[in-house]
DNA sequence: TTATGTGAACATTTTCACAGCG
DNA sequence: CGCTGTGAAAATGTTCACATAA
């Protein structure tokens, strides 16, 4: 119904793109499609069917087609999707062509790993600054970046126009760090500390809690164990590949 | 309608508990409630209202009450929930009282951090073994555990009855590691490698992709930027505290 | 009177099944 | 024909608003 023209194409990054408002569930899957597409492109594929891409991304093909239809995608009936074109489309929608600057606060165990995580750079992000409150860590060089004191955050954030802040501190410090980030004008925060952050409504927070994922798995282990006590097959279930919902 | 009696209580861990089948969305939030409850308990609270717990967990109170009602919880009308009792309930449901054994495969940057992550031990998991394919890493001691070669996984998994395997390898090795875990009888996998794993239907896989979260934030940054070009308030939106859906 | 527990309304997401384009 | 794009149906999740119990 609306697929012929939509917003703007990757080429014209200038104007106001009449931004398509995608369902949140779709947005969360786009990065997965993108990864699969890059993989296919490296393998030399020029086009891919919804079936093929869906398999590579671990979803079913109907969902994939529906998702792509929301961005008004350029599939060809009877053929499939142009891999390179779709990569550009998705990268544009996700804003990955803007090479956003990211800073990381807290260089403990996890912060160290994140600072060196190649997946950030390879997917359109520049880690431009590391901060910590601990003076003993200030000055340390990780992956070519020098750790600075958190007091410098506000100044550096402005200088480097940092778009996203990553919090990898203990939970007790996370809210204070979030406040500093917000004061510095950062409007997107990725929080690894196991706590809830209070931020103004214009700031987006996403949370990753490593232990939560384990606990969800534990629930399913517990359930499986309680079921084996009952009669019936042994294995079971509906036979989906990725059994637990993401 | 069914709240008086339900399955079994934490105390009686023996029988088959007529396992309540909770909505997936509810399960995913239970760990968050649990964290908030522990926090409240440490602060000395004996009871908490749905309003109070909801705020501490970052959800609204209606959702919290609905979630807890699914596990047939023991709130008292006019008063609230008994903190200690609710902790026991949720820990029982999640199977956290069983102190599951976890192994970690891949001790690179991220694996190192995970091996030392205190959040695992503190929430009912025992990291009992570390593995790597790289002979140079075998023998290294991390957090009191010696890294073993992946060839030993099958034997060790049986000895230690490992319930959950965590994959922190590069994506190219992840499927092979998953195959080894499955062969060793592990039925729950937490995958940090950015790739899709194929496993039998009785095995649960959950995935954490650090870069995906950044890409979702990037999308919202992109959208915000394209909206500021338009007229209207400036700040905006509906004023929710955690603006981006989890 | 207070705050839980819950039907019923609403919203979102997934799946189905097929029309229609290449 | 094959495969995309999409209405319509089904399933799942959230919010409302109030009956109900302490």
TrEMBL record, chains A, B:
InterPro entries: CoA-bd, NAD(P)-bd_dom_sf, Rex_actinobacterial-type, Rex_DNA-bd_C_dom, Tscrpt_rep_Rex, WH-like_DNA-bd_sf, WH_DNA-bd_sf. The keyword Cytoplasm applies. Homodimer. It is found in: Cytoplasm. This is Redox-sensing transcriptional repressor Rex. The keyword NAD applies. It comes from the Bacteria.
